[in-house]
Write a structure and sequence with these properties.
The longest helix has 18 residues. The protein has 23 helices and no strands. With about 425 residues, it is mostly helical. Among the domains are: about 60 residues, lambda repressor-like DNA-binding domains (434 Repressor (Amino-terminal Domain)); about 80 residues. Helix 19 packs antiparallel against helix 20 and helix 21 packs antiparallel against helix 22. Helices cover about 75% and strands about 0% of the residues. Keywords: TPR repeat. It holds the Pfam family HTH_3. This is Helix-turn-helix domain-containing protein.
């Protein structure tokens, strides 16, 4: 990458127009020639432009000296200690991706940038870095870079988890799992926690997610991390609910609440209230469940946590659909769709759209139900939400069967079987360990 292209890249990273950069320096036409590689910039021009961009001239030089490489190494080492990356260092790391560096340096840069953008909830930026990494990172981890690849895989999995592509997230987490013997208990606990969450979404046998969350619990207990213990207990409550062990779920929540109250970690209170609501909803104690859900929403609003409310809205939609309270259903559907679309939570977005389609069917608007469900199956496939695609294809097959449209019913049942076959996650713990 020539100097002009580096100037263009940094200018675009800073969302700076050409006119803003060249003001008081040169003409836009001259900058364009430099950025296109048609004019060689003078030393005076480079100094002036770099000052405007807030970088050092050596940051964009073609020099591959040890001094420049050492600076990149220092940025990597500093980030590993502090988890802080300032703007200038961020730009330097991004430019380094277009230069000649050893694999160990490259994979560290990719991992740092992905993690940095995920921490700032900049999902698109993280996805862009991931796509760049696919051009230079090999499929197999060299033995001498096992630790570096572990963190790369873990953070790649986090990208797909953030967009609810649990199939691809599982793929990368399982790659990290194969290298997990090289890392410490803290990072192993994080990986097991993440694996428990993706298995929770994909595995038919829900005991597999409890297997991973229990491993995570034991590691945090060994490390003495009380806050992390509370988080795992809340997750285990969700997973006990999925395994129809509602009293065990409530027991986990009681333990988590005790820790949270002792440590005064109020951020977990909303999670606890939501999971109490789920347990009581599944036990059939609906009024108690609604009280917990409403308390959860109040707590989320109090701390400005918008994104997690999508789960609570989902359950309230289901409750009020059952009660045929359409005003409440419409209220919670709108809020759920807004959050899911804003935060690219495609699983929840498609699921809320499914609920809308189901309302058409309940009002005997069969053609609307069929049309919307067919469109949603396509969207689910596009977003790699094959569990939802499978469910909708099966439901549509049953719908056509009840209407005596047997050929269409067979087509959609076949489609559901195809989606089932394309799901890569193991269905039982025995399959996982065989």
């Amino acid at each position: 990458m020539h100097i002009g292209e580096k100037i263009r890249q940094i200018r675009m990273m800073k969302n700076m127009k050409q006119s803003e950069l060249v003001e008081g320096i040169c003409s836009i036409a001259y900058l364009s020639r430099v950025e296109n590689g048609k004019s060689k910039p003078s030393a005076q021009f480079i100094r002036a432009v770099c000052q405007k961009l807030g970088i050092a001239p050596e940051d964009i030089s073609d020099d591959q000296s040890n001094k420049k490489k050492q600076r990149i190494t220092n940025i990597i080492n500093q980030y590993k200690k502090t988890r802080i990356l300032n703007e200038t260092d961020e730009y330097l790391l991004k430019l380094a991706l277009f230069e000649s560096h050893l694999l160990d340096t490259l994979i560290n840069i990719y991992t740092i940038l992905i993690r940095h953008y995920l921490a700032d909830n900049k999902i698109k930026e993280a996805q862009h870095i991931f796509q760049l990494s696919q051009q230079s990172i090999p499929d197999e981890a060299p033995p001498d870079l096992a630790v570096e690849f572990f963190y790369y895989y873990l953070n790649c999995g986090n990208i797909f988890f953030a967009t609810q592509d649990y199939i691809k997230a599982t793929d990368y987490y399982e790659r990290a799992e194969r290298l997990s013997r090289w890392v410490g208990d803290k990072d192993l606990a994080i990986l097991n926690y993440n694996l428990s969450l993706v298995k929770q979404h994909l595995s038919q046998d829900k005991t597999i997610c409890l297997h991973y969350s229990q491993k995570c619990y034991e590691l945090h207990k060994k490390l003495g991390n009380e806050v992390d213990l509370a988080k795992v207990l809340i997750t285990q409550a969700t997973q006990y609910n999925l395994n129809h062990k509602y009293n065990q779920a409530i027991k986990c929540l009681d333990q988590a609440l005790e820790i949270v109250l002792r440590t005064e970690n109020v951020n977990f209170l909303g999670m606890i209230e939501y999971n109490y609501g789920r347990a009581y909803q599944l036990k059939g104690e609906i009024e108690t469940a609604i009280q917990h859900y409403e308390t959860c929403l109040h707590l989320r609003n109090k701390i400005g946590a918008d994104q997690p409310k999508v789960h609570t809205y989902r359950e309230l939609v289901l409750i009020y659909m059952e009660r045929k309270d359409l005003a409440k259903v419409d209220q919670y559907l709108k809020e759920g769709l807004r959050i899911a679309e804003t935060h690219q939570q495609w699983y929840h977005y498609i699921e809320f759209c499914m609920f809308k389609a189901m309302l058409y069917k309940s009002h005997f608007k069969d053609q609307l139900y069929e049309k919307e469900t067919q469109k949603l199956i396509e969207l689910a496939v596009e977003r790699n939400q094959l569990n939802l695609a499978k469910k909708m294809a099966h439901d549509l097959g049953r719908h056509y069967y009840e209407k005596n449209a047997y050929k269409k019913a067979a087509d959609y049942y076949d489609m559901a079987l195809k989606f089932e076959g394309n799901l890569h996650a193991p269905t039982t713990l025995a399959d996982r360990e065989s």
